[in-house]
Every structure is written in C-alpha cells, then in structure tokens.
C-alpha cells in the first residue's frame, strides 16, 4: 500500500477494533516487570503467540503511550515497553524547543540518549523476552518519534529479529535507512515531519509498506503529545492505532 491510499476504517477478520479511547484519567491495564535489567511495562496475554516491542518517545511512560500499548494488546498481543531512559525521560515542558535554554536541554538529552544506545540493548531485550514468553513466535516493533528512528536502525540492520515494523511520527527520517529495510513497514507521519523526507523514505522501501500522513495532526499525536480531550485528535489517535492493528494483522 502507498501513501495515496486512505487508511482502512474497517478491520480484517484477524484484527480487533480499537477499544474506546479514554480522554482523561486513563487506568493502565498492564503491569511493570523487569526484562534484561530494565523496568518494562507489560500488557496483553502472557500466553500470546504474537509480541510487540514498543519504543516510546523521549517523554517516556506517558498515559497516552500506555493506552496505545493497551490498545495494541487488546488484539491478543503481548506488548512490552522497556524503560530505556531508566526513570529519566525528557520533561515534556522542553518541547517544542522555543527558546535557547530548551534547545540546549533537548540537545543534551539526545546526546545522552542517542537512538543507537537503544539499538544496542534490543538484542538482549528480545532474547530475555523470548525466554520469558516462549509462546510468542513472532515479534513486531513500533516506535514513536525518537523510537521511530530506533525502528529504522534495527529493521535495516544485521540480524533484525522483527517480522514487521511501524514508525509513528518518526524523528530524523533518513531515506538511506529505508533501503536496508526488508520487512513490511508502516510509517504514519504528522504534518510536522518533512514531507520530502517521508516521500523519499517511502520510495526507498522495497518490501510491503503503508506510508500515510495525518495532515492535521501534530508530531506526537499517537503518544505523549496527544491531546485526547480534543475530539479530532482523539479520532485520529484511534484511526492511527486501527491502521497499526490492520497492518500488523496482515504481516505479523
């Protein structure tokens, strides 16, 4: 599928509908456990046959991101979100970086937490997850913002353990990485990702793909920056997750 095709509003037989999205005061359905030495949010059936590794955005464990994980888990997936920042995520007040101090702080955060750092941890995380959840035969990876870059690097690298990938409002979109991605890949962009980079990335993908821009949504609308009290954002948050579930149902 290409960016010229609209997202499917229906769902395949293999895929559930997105549960009703909670605007405020969301109650997490999962628990925290330790996997490969990292605190990890875990949700969904522990005897699932399919697993999803979630790479959060720079703001870490936000309710909107955890709700997204629970939505993915509702389709009989075991979903894991490791705490790569080990309790020190980026304060959301630093974004957008509208002044020099915020720019400096944000730059320092990225320097301390480059996507490559998470990429190096993923083989051990997946090894531990496979040992803990032997019923899971296939794994997908999904990443938001900073996490989207992690997805690009992992799925284009040697020994990629994932059957399918998804990048949601990804940061630092690089068409060169797309050339090395051989697994099915979904990319959902906001109005704030560079359109030219997204188009070049899509053109460079050689495997099954669905690339779509949610033209009235901000960077972060499916994770920490989702204002779910805004009806339009809530609607597109839900449609975004339905698109992910449909793609994973087809390829995972």
Write the layout of secondary structure elements.
Elements: E1 31-35, E2 38-43, E3 50-55, H1 63-73, E4 77-82, H2 100-112, H3 115-132, E5 138-144, H4 146-155, E6 164-168, H5 175-178, E7 185-190, H6 195-204, E8 209-214, H7 231-251
Parallel strand pairs: 3-4, 3-5, 5-6, 6-7, 7-8
Antiparallel strand pairs: 1-2, 2-4
What brief labels describe this structure?
252 residues, Rossmann fold, 19% strand
Describe the fold and architecture.
The chain is of the alpha/beta class and about 250 residues long. The protein has one domain (about 30-250): 3-Layer(aba) Sandwich (Rossmann fold), CATH 3.40.50.1820. Helix content is about 35%, strand content about 20%. The protein is built from seven helices and eight strands; from the N terminus they run βββαβααβαβαβαβα. It has helices at about 65-75, 100-110, 115-130, 145-155, 175-180, 195-205, 230-250; strands spanning about 30-35, 40-45, 50-55, 75-80, 140-145, 165-170, 185-190, 210-215. Strands 1-2-4-3-5-6-7-8 form an eight-stranded mixed sheet, sandwiched between helices. Helix 3 (about 115-130) packs across helix 4. The chain is globular. The model is unreliable at about 1-15 (pLDDT under 50). This is Dienelactone hydrolase family protein. It comes from Plectosphaerella cucumerina. InterPro entries: AB_hydrolase_fold, Dienelactn_hydro. Keywords: Hydrolase.
How would you briefly describe this protein structure?
This protein is 35% helix and 19% strand.
- Structural class call reads alpha/beta
The total of helices stands at: 7
Strand arrangement, largest sheet? 1-2-4-3-5-6-7-8
Contiguous runs where pLDDT drops below 50 for at least 5 residues: 1-15
CATH superfamily: Alpha/Beta hydrolase fold, catalytic domain
Per the CATH scheme, the topology name is Rossmann fold
Order of helices and strands: EEEHEHHEHEHEHEH
Number of domains: 1
The tally of strands reads: 8
Strand percentage: 15-25%
Percentage of residues in helical conformation: 25-40%
Main sheet: strands, sense, barrel: 8 strands, mixed
In the CATH hierarchy, the architecture is 3-Layer(aba) Sandwich
Give the N-to-C terminal Cα separation: 16 Å
| Rg over C-alpha atoms, rounded to the nearest angstrom | 17 Å
């Amino acid at each position: 599928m290409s960016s010229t095709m609209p997202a499917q509003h229906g769902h395949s037989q293999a895929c559930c509908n997105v549960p009703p999205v909670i605007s405020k005061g969301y109650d997490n359905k999962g628990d925290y456990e330790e996997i490969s030495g990292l605190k990890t949010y875990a949700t969904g059936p522990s005897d699932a046959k399919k697993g999803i590794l979630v790479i959060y955005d720079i703001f870490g464990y936000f309710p909107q991101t955890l709700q997204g994980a629970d939505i993915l888990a509702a389709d009989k997936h075991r979903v894991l979100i490791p705490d790569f920042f080990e309790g020190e995520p980026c304060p959301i007040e630093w974004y957008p970086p509208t002044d020099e101090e915020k720019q400096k702080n944000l730059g320092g955060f990225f320097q301390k937490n480059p996507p490559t750092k998470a990429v190096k941890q993923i083989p051990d995380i997946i090894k531990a997850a496979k040992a803990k959840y032997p019923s899971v035969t296939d794994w997908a990876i999904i990443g938001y913002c900073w996490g989207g870059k992690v997805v690009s690097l992992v799925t284009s690298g040697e020994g990629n353990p994932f059957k399918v990938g998804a990048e949601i409002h990804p940061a630092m979109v690089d068409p060169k990485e797309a050339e090395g991605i051989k697994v099915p890949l979904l990319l959902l962009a906001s109005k704030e990702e560079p359109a030219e980079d997204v188009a070049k990335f899509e053109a460079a993908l050689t495997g099954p793909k669905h690339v779509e821009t949610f033209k009235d949504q901000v960077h972060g609308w499916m994770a920490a920056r989702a204002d779910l009290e805004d009806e339009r954002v809530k609607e597109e948050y839900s449609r975004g997750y339905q698109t992910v579930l449909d793609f994973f149902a087809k390829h995972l």
